[in-house]
Task: structure prediction
Amino acid sequence: MRITETAAKIILQTMVSQGLDPKKISILFDICENRLTFEFTLEDKKRETNFYGLRVQHSNQIPKNLIIDYAEVQGKRGLVFTNNEGK
Result:
């Protein structure tokens, strides 16, 4: 999995604005009931990777080709979850 710099910065800004310390708290991505989930955690539950200062944990169920980006589409902004198949 990979998180773009833009997405990482947006997540970090949101964490700080909500009083979450990015040095202590990581974001955990997992698959639960066939759905992609994420949560903020203080615990070291899974393997951790750092993307542009964002501490990220993920389970083995998360696809290796998952890309998390930030985009604006038709005036709406948010995180976009995609893969790099076919590239």
About this structure: The chain has a mean pLDDT of 90. The first helix runs from residue 5 to 17.
